[in-house]
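Holo model, 2-phosphoglycolic acid. Inputs:
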Amino acid sequence: MDIRIFKNSYELSCAAADLIAEAIKRKNAVLGLATGASPKETYDRLIEKYNKGEISFKNVTTFNLDEYCAIPRTDKHSYFTYMCESLFNHVDIKEENIHVPDGNPENTEEYCASYDEAIKNAGGIDIQLLGIGRNGHIGFNEPSDSFTKGTYKVKLSDSTVEANKIYFSSNDKMPEYAITMGVESILNAKEIILIAQGKAKAEAVNNMINGEISPSCPASILRKHNAVHIFLDGEAASLL
Ligand code: PGA
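Output:
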C-alpha cells in the first residue's frame, strides 16, 4: 500500500488529481468514481486541469460506485446530480460514456448484473477513486459477515444514515437503500486511490491498515490489492 499523509486537503487533492490525470493521458481511461465530501476537491483539481488544456475527457468512460434508491436521478440529493454538478457539467465528457447506477431499476438483479457487464465490456476500471465510511465501508458495502461480490442492492447501515442525513433536510427523507458496486467489483480495478480526511475517519483508517482483514471493516480487503494508494490528511492518519 502506498500510504501518503498530506499537510492539507489542497495538496491531497492535487496528488489524487495528478494520478487520475496520468491515467487519462496514458490511454482512453475508464474511471471508477465516488461521491461524498472526500473526492470533491479532487474533482475541482481535475476541472482546473481540463480548463488549462492539460487533460480532456473526450475519450474517458466513467462508472460511479453507487446511487440511492427511491429518489429520482434528477433529485438534488442523487449521486447523478452530485456528479453532474461536481465534474461532468464542467468537462467535455460524452453523455454516453457516463455510468451512474440506476437507483430504481425495474428488475434489480438483472440491472445489477448488466452494470458489472458494462464495466467488463469497457475493459475494466483503470483507476478507482474511493472514500471510506466511518464504519469502514467502501462504496456502500457496509460491515457484514462476508465480502460482497458484484453490484447489488444494499440496506444502508445506521452509521451511514447518520453520516449522510446531514445532506437531507428534515422534509426530505434519507433513502434507506442504495445500489452499489460490490467489493469484488471494486477490487477488479487495476489501480485504486482511497481518500480520507478528518478525525471522524481516523478509526476506520486505522482498522483498514492495521486491523484484521475482515468484512467487519470492508476497506481492509484493499490490503490484498497490489496497486492501492491511501491519501490521508493528518487527522485521518492520527491513530496510525
Ligand atoms: P464522505 O463519504 O466522503 O462524504 O465522508 C465517504 C464514504 O462514505 O464512503
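The pocket of 2-phosphoglycolic acid is lined by residues 36-38, 131-133, 137 (CB under 6 Å). The chain has one domain: 2-233.
Archived with the compound record.
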